[in-house]
Amino acid sequence: MSVDSVEDIKKHIKVYIMVFVALMVLTVVTVGVAYLPLTVPIAITLALIIASIKGSLVASYFMHLAAEKSAIYWTLLVTAAFFLVLMFVPLLTTLDTISR
């Protein structure tokens, strides 16, 4: 069992507080964007961008994924490969020339 020093713990607490403040600011930005007179596609795009930033902050720091670089890269690579396969399946079915 490792014992962290007081300075180490204070550094972690400082990071957590900064991430919490960033999440609160982004929440206020989300509410502010909701009151802007935007078209639906632009509003949805902005909402998804803000939500993606907030989700990545939560996953990176509160779920301790910031230190898991190689696992994240492999997961993204596999996800991208499956995405490409699933995007080309309908194309390949329309190009199928074998008649029954």
Verbal overview:
By secondary structure, the protein is mainly alpha-helical. It has one domain. It is 78% helix and 0% strand. It contains three helices and no strands. It has helices at residues 6-34, 40-62, 69-94. It is flat and about 70 Å long. The N and C termini lie far apart (66 Å). The mean pLDDT is 87.
Describe how the helices and strands are arranged.
Layout: H1 6-34, H2 40-62, H3 69-94
Helix pairs in contact: 1-2
GO cellular component, one term: plasma membrane
Membrane topology: Multi-pass membrane protein
Keywords: Cell membrane, Membrane, Transmembrane, Transmembrane helix
What gyration radius follows from the Cα positions, in whole Å? 21 Å
In helices, the fraction of residues equals over 70%
Mean pLDDT reading: 87
> What is the molecular shape?
flat
N-to-C order of helices and strands: HHH
Strand count: 0
Main beta sheet strand tally, sense and closure: none
The structural class is mainly alpha
The proportion of residues in beta strands is under 5%
Low-confidence stretches: none
What is the end-to-end distance? Answer: 66 Å
How many structural domains in the coordinates?
Answer: 1
Helical segment count: 3
